[in-house]
């Protein structure tokens, strides 16, 4: 379809006036624009421009303001009189009408998800009604918007959990590539939803349980995977063992561990399992824990006595605090911080800028709420990468945490 706005300056001006009116419907003064006579190089073009403006004025869409005295033969400005009539004169529906029609088409898809999906649709409809795009979707992209909301609704129903991206995409939309097309806007919306606007995509996918392919869980401690007639994996193997999430139904706890310790970073995990042998169950989370890690920890924490300490060791920074909070929110019981203290960060950390986005954790019941408050609002904030510390037994880490409280 040819875009007439690129071929006719008069139509282009009227379209621009309509877009201005729709973008700010509550404006106190109607949108106006001055003609660009330098684009009208012939008398015929000037005459056509004047005819177009006169026709729009007769239709009741605009008011034509002519110049005075020696410029009385030229149009000074065009002022919008009625945006709806202007849209009709241009042969298209208004932006609010288009937005409302799209909302009606998408509402059954949105209502199939959690209530916040409908709230998002209302937010996007308001932007479409002003002629704007929303999450890089315009009201003209109905098919893409339908795909986007279909995936979001499915994610809100927890249907992405434990699946790789293409399998989930096929199940949700009957198209293996739909998720890839929508990935960036899904990450943007979900990042805001989980309280981490601008978060990396991998962080967001971990929150919804999506895994491109399930990775083995690295651990060291008294657990095993039992086969029909033999032990397939012994978690006490040195330096550590790896258990695929599909084996979790065969996982058992061999004996009471002295503690359950999760570790964010790979280097620190390797040092812990190689240098400390105290009967703890040590699990590598790899940053934000994937669905398989959460499933394994949930099974272990349900199986071991409640008085077995559960701790997490991560970086003292915004990411480390968010990972800690994620564990608290997704497991039968939350961890206590291991070597994650304000005092240790002051001793061995690096100067950093406060991050107010941690305010929600600082105001929560989290075991790291005081640390989050310092990182969010402190004047002397320092970040501490866990690799800067030597590993210690979890029992010693508990002692450090209490002494620094």
TrEMBL record:
Indicate the segments forming the DUF3322 domain, all copies.
14-190
Residues covered by the Wadjet protein JetD C-terminal domain: 238-390
**What domain of life does the UniProt record list for this protein's source?**
Bacteria
* Coiled-coil annotated residue ranges, if any: none
Put simply, this protein is called Wadjet protein JetD C-terminal domain-containing protein
Organism this protein belongs to: Bradyrhizobium hipponense
């Amino acid at each position: 379809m040819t875009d007439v706005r690129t071929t006719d300056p008069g139509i282009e001006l009227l379209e621009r006036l309509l877009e201005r009116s729709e973008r700010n419907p509550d404006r106190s003064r109607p949108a106006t624009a001055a003609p660009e006579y330098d684009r009208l190089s012939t008398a015929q073009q000037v005459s056509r421009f004047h005819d177009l403006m006169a026709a729009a004025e007769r239709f009741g869409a605009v008011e034509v303001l002519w110049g005075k005295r020696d410029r009385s033969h030229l149009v000074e400005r065009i002022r919008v009189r009625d945006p709806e009539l202007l849209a009709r004169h241009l042969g298209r529906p208004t932006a609010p009408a288009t937005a409302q029609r799209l909302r009606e088409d998408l509402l059954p898809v949105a209502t199939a998800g959690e209530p916040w999906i409908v709230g998002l649709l209302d937010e996007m409809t308001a932007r479409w009604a002003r002629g704007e795009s929303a999450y890089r979707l315009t009201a003209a992209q109905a098919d893409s918007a339908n795909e986007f909301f279909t995936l979001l609704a499915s994610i809100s129903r927890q249907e992405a959990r434990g699946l790789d991206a293409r399998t989930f995409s096929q199940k949700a939309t009957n198209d293996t590539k739909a998720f890839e097309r929508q990935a960036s806007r899904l990450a943007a919306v979900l990042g805001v939803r989980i309280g981490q606007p601008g978060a990396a995509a991998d962080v967001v996918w971990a929150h919804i349980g999506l895994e491109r392919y399930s990775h083995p869980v690295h651990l060291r401690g008294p657990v095993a995977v039992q086969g029909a007639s033999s032990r397939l994996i012994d978690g006490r193997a040195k330096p550590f063992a790896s258990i695929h999430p599909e084996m979790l139904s065969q996982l058992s706890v061999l004996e009471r561990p002295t503690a359950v310790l999760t570790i964010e970073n790979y280097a620190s995990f390797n040092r812990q399992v190689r240098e400390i042998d105290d009967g703890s169950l040590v699990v590598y989370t790899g940053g934000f824990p994937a669905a398989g890690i959460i499933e394994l920890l949930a099974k272990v924490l349900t199986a071991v006595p409640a008085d077995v300490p559960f701790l997490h060791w991560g970086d003292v920074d915004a990411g480390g605090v968010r990972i800690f909070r994620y564990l608290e929110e997704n497991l039968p019981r939350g961890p206590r911080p291991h070597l994650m203290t304000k005092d240790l960060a002051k001793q061995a950390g690096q100067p950093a800028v406060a991050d107010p986005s941690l305010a929600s954790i600082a105001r929560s019941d989290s075991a790291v709420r005081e640390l989050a408050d310092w990182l969010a609002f402190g004047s002397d904030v320092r970040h501490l990468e866990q690799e800067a510390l030597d590993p210690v037994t979890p029992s010693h880490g508990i002692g450090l945490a209490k002494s620094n409280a």
